[in-house]
Design goal:
Strand 1, helix 2 and strand 2 form a beta-alpha-beta unit. A 7-stranded parallel beta sheet has the order 3-2-1-6-4-7-5, sandwiched between helices. It has 2 domains: 67 residues, no CATH class; 151 residues, 3-Layer(aba) Sandwich (Alpha/beta knot), CATH 3.40.1280. The protein starts with a helix and ends in a 24-residue tail after the last helix. It is an alpha/beta fold and 224 residues long. The protein is elongated and about 60 Å long. It has 7 helices and 7 strands; from the N terminus they run H-E-H-E-E-H-E-E-E-H-E-H-H-H. Helices cover 37% and strands 15% of the residues. About 2% of the residues have low confidence.
Length: 224
């Protein structure tokens, strides 16, 4: 990997917001999933979550720019399990769900540890998901239509989160612990080796986090 590419990857990781994420509640259309994943990458989200009625959630499309390399997806068995998992990890869960109790999405403090819950365009989020969320939000509209494409709505909400976090200086330096940063950087620079090591249950090879260079050649034949 050339120096320019490594520098770019490192700079991107330094801006990743590990305490901001989304949960997609049965957003099943691949083009919407891919568009949402691209927005997450753009605002610095590294980990995203999803539930689906299908066996596998795909965030890849021809126009997705290989986003699955830069955004990690965790699929949960159901929405209740996903919300409980996020709350256990101290995330406030805000659901994009218009109701009498919903508030303007710009009133949310997105500098807190936050998970944004998005539903499919026609169905929205389930009643159970709305009940389990900490707060319901909506995007004010002044026209005849009362809804947006889910990927567009998600982008509006996440860029508001980005705006708030940027004002607070949350993109200025990495907020990861050094050990975690070095591990995550290796996984972005050497995804194939990282996957191989995970499958073989072996430690990642040592490398120089300043240059990205492996300290010695990594030969998979040594472990076969």
């Amino acid at each position: 990997m050339n120096k320019k590419r490594f520098k770019k990857i490192k700079e991107v990781l330094e801006k990743r917001q590990h305490d901001l994420t989304i949960l997609m509640d049965n957003v099943h259309k691949p083009h919407n999933l891919a568009a949402i994943a691209r927005t997450c990458d753009a605002v610095g989200i590294y980990d995203i979550h999803a539930t689906a009625n299908t066996d596998k959630v795909r965030i890849t499309q021809k126009t997705s720019g290989g986003v699955k390399k830069w955004v990690r997806l965790t699929q949960h068995d159901d929405t209740e399990t996903a919300i409980k998992y996020l709350k256990k990890n101290d995330f406030q869960v805000v659901a994009a769900h218009f109701s009498q109790n919903s508030i303007d999405f710009r009133q949310i403090d997105f500098t807190r540890k936050t998970a944004v819950l998005m539903g499919a365009e026609l169905e929205g989020i389930s009643d159970e998901a709305a009940r389990l969320s900490d707060q319901r939000i909506h995007i004010p509209m002044h026209g005849m239509t009362q809804s947006l494409n889910v990927s567009v709505a998600c982008a509006l909400i996440l860029f508001e989160a980005e705006r708030q976090r940027k004002i607070k200086g949350m993109y200025e330096k990495s907020r990861l612990e050094e050990k975690e940063f070095i591990k995550a950087l290796f996984e972005l620079v050497y995804p194939d080796i990282a996957l191989f090591c995970t499958q073989k249950n072996i430690d990642y090879p040592e490398y120089n986090p300043e240059t990205g260079k492996l300290l010695k050649p990594f030969l998979t034949s040594e472990y076969i």
